[in-house]
Amino acid sequence: MAGKDGMVRMVLVLVLVLTCWMQVIAAANTTNVTTCSFSAVYAFGDSLIDVGNAIAAFPNQFAYAEESPNGVSWPSHSADRMSDGKLLVDFISFGGTLGPTYPWFRSIATDLEFGTNFGCAGATAENQTEDWTPDSGFNTPFSLDIQLQWLRRYKVRLEYYYNQTWVNQSLPEISTLNTSVYMVQAGFQDYFFPLYYKNSTTKKLLKRVPKVVSAISDMLEGLADFGATAVFVVNVPPIGCFPALLTVYPKSSDKYDSYGCLKSINNISTTHNAALEEQVISLRSKYPNVTYYLLDFYSAYTDILADPAAYNITETLKACCGSGGSYNFNKEVTCSEVGKVGNQQVNLTVSTCSNPKAYLSWDGIHPSHAANRAAATDFFNGKHITPSGFGCVVNTTQFS
Ligand SMILES: *[C@@H]1O[C@H](CO)[C@@H](O)[C@H](O)[C@H]1NC(C)=O
Ligand SMILES: *[C@@H]1O[C@H](CO)[C@@H](O)[C@H](O)[C@H]1NC(C)=O
Ligand SMILES: *[C@@H]1O[C@H](CO)[C@@H](O)[C@H](O)[C@H]1NC(C)=O
Ligand SMILES: *[C@@H]1O[C@H](CO)[C@@H](O)[C@H](O)[C@H]1NC(C)=O
Ligand SMILES: *[C@@H]1O[C@H](CO)[C@@H](O)[C@H](O)[C@H]1NC(C)=O
Ligand SMILES: *[C@@H]1O[C@H](CO)[C@@H](O)[C@H](O)[C@H]1NC(C)=O
Ligand SMILES: *[C@@H]1O[C@H](CO)[C@@H](O)[C@H](O)[C@H]1NC(C)=O
Ligand SMILES: *[C@@H]1O[C@H](CO)[C@@H](O)[C@H](O)[C@H]1NC(C)=O
Ligand SMILES: *[C@@H]1O[C@H](CO)[C@@H](O)[C@H](O)[C@H]1NC(C)=O
Ligand SMILES: *[C@@H]1O[C@H](CO)[C@@H](O)[C@H](O)[C@H]1NC(C)=O
Questions:
Q1: Distance from the CA of 32 to the center of ligand 1, in angstroms?
Q2: Overall average pLDDT of the 218-243 stretch
Q3: Angle at CA 246, nearest 5°, toward 385 and 90?
Q4: pLDDT band, very low/low/confident/very high, at 286 (cuts 50, 70, 90)
Q5: How far apart are CA 109 and CA 102, in angstroms?
Q6: Is the CB of 127 within 6 Å of ligand 3?
Q7: In this model, does residue 177 exceed pLDDT 50?
Q8: Strand segments (E) across 307-365
């Protein structure tokens, strides 16, 4: 019996030694990386980041955002987003805080504890001033300069109301404003819609790149002056791969790249992104107290085009919610609309593709939940982001 006890003890000691040794190895490997914990996320930009401002400001124009099938991949949540599910900002928020960002314009059941979202569909990076002639079909008046003014206004109100006992709303501590994340995802609106409505050309838009980048840069400087210390700058995706533009710009095959995307349109994205990167690099030396992270959405998207199977994506160039043609997109009847395509009655208010998570594009215009999820996974894992990683970790396998 004693022998058996001794054996048990020896095994236990061995297990203990082994466990300690493994812990030492683990500690050495993790180099003190902490779990991501952002105080709050403040978001700025266009429809790629808007979680409900556009529909609050223009309920008729943007009613579709709240209607089926938008939001199908995120059940039990009113969509308010141009997506089947979550946006990149949602994954960033859920990854680093305890909840999503709520739109600045929402008055009912709003919760600003984990940040505020000032982004608005239709918002250009460039100022929407009276003398600026919009050459796209529809822009909202809420360009980045206005969104920055809202942020300043928010701070004034926060200071005023924070300690008022009658204000029964949970708000972030004023001191966390300097330690929160400020996320800017803009420029898409400035390029995509002038092309989609054919009011502009690639040549004209290439000339606009410096102005668009300069407007984003003004925003990034404004955030530094505001006191931000962590700014996430998202670049623009390869819009020449978006089903809507592939449909309205049918071109001869020599104008397509190896993924089937429109080369000259993607050149706008890459030209913009190169100029944006240059600006971010110079802002890093101008504002040493601010960490400007560059989130390379373009490359994250291109990775999926290069190896869709690795992301469980089967359709890279077709819209999930759409109707007809090579790209399952038709300008006459877009997602959540009802109408005629030729002689065919089309109803896109309910039906959609059978598996939205297998598509890179949601409605032909906006990236899908799956695309946003893949990009967020990359960024949290230190891929396609400079500086490399947020200095913290998130278990991205739990992203749903
Ligand atoms: C990890 O943290 C400990 C204690 O804070 C510190 O002594 C050590 O130098 C840190 N290691 C690294 C790799 O940063
Ligand atoms: C853009 O072009 C369309 C026709 O292609 C026209 O109906 C629309 O008014 C134009 N928009 C602007 C802002 O010029
Ligand atoms: C855009 O508007 C802001 C104020 O809202 C102003 O400071 C800035 O100079 C304007 N930018 C341009 C290019 O006009
Ligand atoms: C709120 O009250 C606390 C405690 O009195 C104080 O430390 C803090 O500065 C106040 N905050 C604001 C924004 O007035
Ligand atoms: C504030 O809200 C909480 C729950 O949301 C409630 O229990 C509390 O009574 C409210 N306080 C006031 C002053 O209305
Ligand atoms: C936050 O940053 C602003 C601007 O740099 C500065 O004026 C303010 O003192 C900072 N606040 C805190 C609490 O660090
Ligand atoms: C992109 O556009 C720029 C500016 O017009 C041009 O110099 C460059 O050759 C283009 N690149 C491609 C790959 O078409
Ligand atoms: C940078 O941060 C340091 C330490 O918090 C502060 O003393 C300094 O004023 C800040 N510089 C700028 C330009 O905000
Ligand atoms: C792809 O699907 C498989 C099987 O459901 C799953 O194990 C894997 O995590 C998925 N990969 C991604 C990137 O979602
Ligand atoms: C579209 O289809 C849905 C679901 O079948 C239906 O409820 C709705 O009435 C249809 N709309 C039109 C205009 O036919």
A1: 6
A2: 98
A3: 35
A4: very high
A5: 9
A6: yes
A7: yes
A8: 315-319, 338-341, 344-347, 359-361
CA of 174 to the centre of ligand 4 (A): 9
Q: What is the distance between the alpha carbons of residues 193 and 212, in angstroms, rounded to a whole number?
A: 14
Residue 391, Cβ density class (10 Å: 0-12 exposed, 13-18 middle, ≥19 buried): middle
Closest CA relative to residue 313, chosen from 270, 366, 375, 356: 356
Which pLDDT does position 319 carry in this prediction?
Answer: 98
DSSP string of 233-293, one letter each residue: EE----GGGSHHHHHHS---GGGB-TTS-BHHHHHHHHHHHHHHHHHHHHHHHH-TTSEEE
Query: Length of the chain, please?
Result: 400
How far does the centroid of ligand 3 lie from the alpha carbon of residue 226, in Å? 16
Quick check: CB of 174 below 6 Å from ligand 4? yes
Please give the average per-residue pLDDT across 328-343, as a whole number. Answer: 94
Confidence of residue 136 (pLDDT cuts 50, 70, 90): low
Is the distance from CB of 85 to CB of 159 less than 8 angstroms? no
Q: Identify the nearest ligand to the CA of 165 by its number.
A: 5
How many Å apart are CA 345 and CA 109, to the nearest integer?
A: 38
325 CB burial (10 A radius; 0-12, 13-18, 19+): middle
Q: 113 pLDDT exceeds 80?
A: yes
The pTM of the full predicted model, rounded to 2 decimals, is: 0.88
Tokens (6 digits) for 335: 């997602």
Q: How far apart are CA 96 and CA 124, in angstroms?
A: 27
* Residue bearing tokens 């409900």: 52
For the CA of 163, the closest atom of ligand 4 is: 1
Of the listed ligands, the closest to the CA of 166 is 5
Which ligand lies nearest to the CA atom of residue 255 in the structure?
A: 7
pLDDT for res 23? 42
pLDDT value for 130:
56
Q: Are 147 and 211 in contact (CB under 8 A)?
A: no
As given in the structure block, the two tokens for residue 27 are 């500690």
Ligand 4 centroid, distance to 159 Cα (angstroms): 9
* Token representation of residue 102: 């709520």
- Evaluate the omega torsion of the peptide bond into residue 69 and state whether it is cis, within 30 degrees of 0: yes
Which of 132, 135, 195, 199 has the most ligand 2 atoms within 8 A of CB, as the residue to mutate? 199
Model pLDDT for residues 250-262, shown as the tens digit of each residue: 777 779 999 999 9
Residue list, ligand 10 pocket, CB within 6 Å:
338, 347, 349-350
